[in-house]
From TrEMBL:
<feature type="binding site">
    <location>
        <begin position="142"/>
        <end position="156"/>
    </location>
    <ligand>
        <name>NAD(+)</name>
    </ligand>
</feature>
<comment type="similarity">
    <text>Belongs to the class-II pyridine nucleotide-disulfide oxidoreductase family.</text>
</comment>
<dbReference type="GO" id="GO:0000302">
    <property type="term" value="P:response to reactive oxygen species"/>
</dbReference>
<comment type="subunit">
    <text>Homodimer.</text>
</comment>
<keyword id="KW-0676">Redox-active center</keyword>
<dbReference type="GO" id="GO:0102039">
    <property type="term" value="F:NADH-dependent peroxiredoxin activity"/>
</dbReference>
<keyword id="KW-1015">Disulfide bond</keyword>
<keyword id="KW-0521">NADP</keyword>
<feature type="domain" description="FAD/NAD(P)-binding">
    <location>
        <begin position="2"/>
        <end position="285"/>
    </location>
</feature>
<keyword id="KW-0520">NAD</keyword>
<feature type="binding site">
    <location>
        <begin position="262"/>
        <end position="272"/>
    </location>
    <ligand>
        <name>FAD</name>
    </ligand>
</feature>
<keyword id="KW-0285">Flavoprotein</keyword>
<comment type="function">
    <text>Transfer of electrons from NADH to the respiratory chain. The immediate electron acceptor for the enzyme is believed to be ubiquinone.</text>
</comment>
<dbReference type="GO" id="GO:0032991">
    <property type="term" value="C:protein-containing complex"/>
</dbReference>
<dbReference type="GO" id="GO:0008137">
    <property type="term" value="F:NADH dehydrogenase (ubiquinone) activity"/>
</dbReference>
<dbReference type="GO" id="GO:0005829">
    <property type="term" value="C:cytosol"/>
</dbReference>
<dbReference type="GO" id="GO:0050660">
    <property type="term" value="F:flavin adenine dinucleotide binding"/>
</dbReference>
């Protein structure tokens, strides 16, 4: 059996595997797609100490770093079940069952798409999901935020400090965000809030040049010229496969303590699939290191 088996090969999983292997213990990593979300990322400018890189390049460096160590890498393997027996068992989609003394879950998350024409076409060409990552690219420009929940309103407040103007589009007649956030939003001079509107299309040529929406009460279609659209209708953790085997919160995030431990002894978790706040590369890597040291500590004591 493994001492540490990591499930998920994004920044969190790679970091967890390297920290474990450096302890000289038997380490494996199973990932559906080694690299994770960064494979879909164009430019990265907030991975501290690296002024600028690109997602696929960072993914290749992660893989290179992992290969420096004696780590059993199982790429293109999707986990479908976790069961705690004497050891912890992870069953893969191909039927194989991996056994380990500890497991680190780092299966990440995915942004929920609005699913309108133009969204996929202009992804990374004006369509963005992360204000911390891509906000500065729109300095001095007009952008829209789709979604008036907490994440949408937080994004709009954040962006309003960088860009020229922000238009928030909310499908429902009222914003769902906490009232303190709404108060802050409405106090800003360069924000327009459109409620009860349905996004119809993100328009553009080489990159985004506007957004079309329908006023739901009048059914009138409107178009706004702008340069960027931030989609903020939810981040979905890739944790459904766990069922009730590990405690998750109402958003599906795996509940962890400050050492990365879950409610199941020997099962740790890290990165975007957890309750750890703020979903970022540098944070998920730190979280992977924490969970790995947590798992090592557990092995020493058990
Ligand atoms: P992920 O990167 O999501 O990796 C999850 C891993 O688990 C993958 O290998 C996946 O294939 C695997 N997996 C999932 N389910 C299973 C399963 N059942 N079995 C086995 N493996 C599974 N952050 C920044 O800091 N700066 C940026 O500029 C930035 N830009 C971004 C741009 C885009 C378009 C996106 C989508 C995200 C961006 N982020 C950015 C966020 C950043 O990519 C994430 O915070 C980070 O990748 C999270 O790492 P993770 O390892 O927790 O999860």
């Amino acid at each position: 059996p493994f001492d540490v088996l990591v499930v998920g090969g994004g920044p969190a999983g790679a970091s967890a595997a390297i920290y474990a292997a450096r302890k000289g213990i038997r380490t494996g990593i199973a990932a559906e797609r080694f690299g994770g979300q960064i494979l879909d990322t164009a430019s990265i400018e907030n991975f501290i100490s690296v002024k600028h890189t690109e997602g696929p390049k960072l993914a290749a460096s992660l893989e290179e770093h992992v290969k420096e160590y004696n780590i059993d890498v199982m790429n293109l393997q999707r986990a479908k079940r976790l069961e705690k027996k004497d050891l912890i068992e992870i069953e893969l989609e191909n039927g194989a069952v991996l056994k380990s003394k500890t497991v680190i879950l780092s299966t990440g998350a995915r942004w929920r798409d609005v699913g309108v024409p133009g969204e996929a076409e202009f992804r990374n060409k004006g369509v963005a999901y992360c204000p911390h990552c891509d906000g500065p690219l729109f300095e001095g420009k007009h952008v829209a935020v789709i979604g008036g929940g907490n994440s949408g309103v937080e994004a709009a407040i954040d962006l309003a400090g960088i860009v020229k103007h922000v238009t928030v589009l909310e499908f429902m007649p009222e914003l769902k965000a906490d009232s303190v956030l709404q108060d802050r939003l409405y106090s800003l001079p360069n924000v327009t809030v459109l409620k009860n509107v349905q996004t119809k299309e993100i328009t553009g040529t080489d990159s985004v040049n506007g957004i079309s929406y329908i006023e739901r009460d009048t059914e009138i279609e409107q178009h706004i010229e702008l340069s960027g659209v931030f989609v903020q209708i939810g981040l979905v953790p890739n944790t459904d496969w766990l069922g009730d085997s590990v405690e998750r919160n109402r958003f599906g995030e795996i509940v962890i303590d400050n050492r990365g431990a879950t409610n199941v002894p020997g099962v740790f978790a890290a990165g975007d699939c957890t309750t750890n706040p703020y979903k970022q590369i540098i944070i998920s890597m730190g979280s992977g290191a924490t969970a790995s040291l947590g798992a090592f500590d557990y092995l020493v004591r058990n």
